[in-house]
Automatic annotation (TrEMBL), chain A:
Identification of the protein by name: Putative thioredoxin-disulfide reductase
InterPro entries cross-referenced by the UniProt entry: GlrX-like_pln_2, Glutaredoxin, Glutaredoxin_subgr, Thioredoxin-like_sf
Annotated Glutaredoxin domain residues: 13-74
The family this protein is said to belong to: Belongs to the glutaredoxin family. CC-type subfamily.
Keywords of the record: Cytoplasm, Oxidoreductase, Redox-active center
Originating organism: Rosa chinensis (China rose)
Keyword Cytoplasm: yes
The EC number(s) this enzyme carries: 1.8.1.9
Localization of this protein: Cytoplasm
GO CC list: cytoplasm
Keyword Oxidoreductase part of the UniProt annotation: yes
Length: 102, 398
């Protein structure tokens, strides 16, 4: 559990994914398009991957990718896409940046 | 023995036949209620043989001789011809005694009556043949209609077994796809109806509330489509991805199982003038974010295709004991396709929703109508294209 939270706070944007997951890849591309470089943690290449996956599920994210912004769980692909179309994704990123620098 | 040329005697016989059968033709056509115009068209169709002959008769009859041939006229013609030709009889020509003349008249009458009877008989036979032909055609038509109905059902139930690109089914029915095809047909009809309603409402300057209802209805209708597609994706993702359920031109513009969100915005934008602040910026942002999301999904799909290809190409693995697990791995990737289509539909739906949030009711109504008409246009174009006249195959002269 701590590992998840620790990793989740390690960067502005953190994605928990699996190496074979192309949807995770797509979400990563999306963040790059708006100028962000997320950290990617591949659960299937992590010895604690199973535990972490269960933890993420308990937190409310049942599928990869699991996206954290500023250490806070945003959700999976659906949530990220919805936020972006509503125009709320970038403001969220910006707000974290402001918090980080202040 | 006739001392005349064949065609002249033909003419005479024909004349008598016409005279003899004119009554029959007339009464027959009356009872069957065929106006003379129908004669012409059926002759042009060339389908009904006996009818054609009757038509010829009629035309000859009305054109050549008028419909009111008096007995005297016939007699006149008759006797005139007889004097010249000698009317198939072996009797010598020229005047003789009164007795002979009256005998000849009696003979003439007899022969005429006989020919009348003959003509009448032939007419009845022709009528019978024609009616039989009609009956046969009717049966054939019924058979064809039945076959057409069956084929239609087969297409619906067989789902992707129709069309060469879906050999996987081999006639096995996929009820999920069956359901989808039927429901999609209804969906398109309903869409058409809603478009008409929107058009009418906009033309007749409906109230804000009425328009709002129509817009909500339209958005809900798209939501229904996405739900239907989700079920179809579970039944067969390749069917959905292929776009076989759409018309050919729509299929050309297909992107991950449906229309492009950016395409949607391109279609709607011209309908929105005038935009008032903050609409222009909002619209620009929506366009940008949907484009970015679209690009991301496209790249993800490409990656998926590449990894799947690698899995399938690695032939050293596809053997023996590992075959089962390799199949399972492939199936897993196929499931990933389902997620992508789901995300693409989600993107479409979000774009629609955001669009309606940014716009006024009136603008949203115009936008939805433009979108609906756009798809109608694509469908109509597909039909026309399918029905276009083809070049006849060239014959090569060697």
């Amino acid at each position: 559990m701590e590992k998840v939270l620790r990793l989740a706070s390690a960067n502005d944007v953190v994605i928990f994914s699996k190496s074979s997951c192309c949807l995770c890849y797509a979400v990563n591309i999306l963040f790059q398009e708006i100028g962000v470089r997320p950290s990617v943690n591949e659960l299937d290449n992590d010895p604690d991957g199973r535990e972490m996956e269960k933890c993420l599920m308990r937190m409310g994210c049942s599928a990869v990718p699991a996206v954290f912004i500023g250490g806070t769980l945003i959700g999976s692909t659906n949530e990220v896409m919805s936020l972006h179309l509503k125009g709320q994704l970038i403001p969220k990123l910006k707000s974290y940046e402001q918090n980080a620098t202040s | 023995m006739l001392s005349v040329s064949d065609c002249e005697s033909h003419f005479l016989v024909h004349l008598l036949l016409v005279q003899g059968s004119c009554l029959l033709v007339f009464s027959w056509s009356q009872s069957m209620n065929y106006p003379s115009t129908q004669f012409a068209t059926s002759r042009q169709m060339g389908i009904y043989e006996p009818f054609r002959q009757v038509g010829v008769w009629r035309e000859t009859f009305s054109g050549g001789y008028g419909s009111n041939i008096g007995a005297s006229t016939i007699a006149e013609v008759d006797s005139g011809q007889e004097n010249k030709i000698g009317f198939g009889s072996h009797e010598s020509m020229g005047p003789s005694g009164n007795d002979q003349e009256s005998n000849r008249s009696a003979d003439k009458v007899q022969r005429r009556l006989e020919q009348n009877r003959e003509a009448a008989r032939k007419s009845r036979m022709r009528k019978k043949a024609y009616v039989q032909q009609l009956e046969t055609s009717r049966l054939k038509l019924a058979q064809l209609e039945l076959e057409l109905d069956r084929t239609r059902k087969q297409v619906a139930y067989g789902g992707s077994s129709f069309g060469g690109s879906h050999m996987g089914y081999n006639g096995i029915v996929n009820s999920g796809i069956t359901t989808f095809e039927l429901e999609y047909g209804h969906w398109v009809e309903e869409q058409h109806r809603q478009n008409n309603e929107l058009r009418k409402a906009l033309q007749e300057h409906a109230t804000e509330i009425e328009l709002r209802l129509l817009v909500e209805g339209g958005l809900n209708h798209y939501a229904t489509l996405f739900r239907m597609k989700a079920d179809a994706a579970k039944a067969d993702i390749f069917y959905l991805l292929s776009g076989i359920w759409r018309t050919s031109v729509e299929r050309y513009f297909h992107w991950i199982g449906g229309f492009r969100p950016s395409e949607l915005l391109n279609i709607i934008e011209p309908q929105l003038e005038p935009l008032t602040d903050p609409q222009p910026l909002d619209f620009y942002n929506l366009r940008q974010s949907s484009q970015q999301a679209e690009d991301a999904l496209s790249q993800g799909m490409d990656k998926l295709q590449q990894t799947l290809a690698k899995t399938l190409e690695a032939d050293q693995i596809w053997s023996g004991e590992t075959y089962g697990s390799q199949m399972a791995a492939a199936f897993e990737k196929f499931e990933a396709l389902e997620s992508f289509v789901s995300q693409a539909d989600h993107l479409r739906q979000q774009t629609l929703q955001q669009m309606s949030r940014i716009l006024t009711t009136h603008q949203a109504a115009r936008g939805l109508l433009a979108l609906g008409e756009y798809f109608e246009r694509l469908r109509a174009l597909s039909s026309l294209w399918a029905a276009r006249p083809r070049e006849p195959t060239e014959s090569y002269a060697f």
